[in-house]
Predict the 3D structure of the following.
Amino acid sequence: MPPLHHVLAAIAGRPDAAGAMVVSDEGLVIDAVLPAPLEADTIAALAATAQRTLAGLGEALGHGTPGDIVLDGPTGTTIICRLPTGASLLVLAAPEGDLGALLHDLRRHAPALTELV
């Protein structure tokens, strides 16, 4: 198993996470560990589009390009962390998990994924 897949499996295996994937800026799946029945290709394309749109919004507001995006919905939370390599880490938070701890760890460790992408 490639090292990136090991890292994604470790993230997805946390009690506060339900899945993880790395997406290119073009919306392609680099690697994914997602629960069934989620479709990695669809999620990757939509995540890249959302990130481009929200980057435009951040620029228009004078806030700059967002580093992390937290999408909080009625049935779950998703975190998209921008990586310096032209890719993003997308993590599905577990419904009953500690979102603060997950976000803190992702912000601290996501840059280390740069070597694996």
User: Anything to note?
Assistant: The chain has a mean pLDDT of 90.
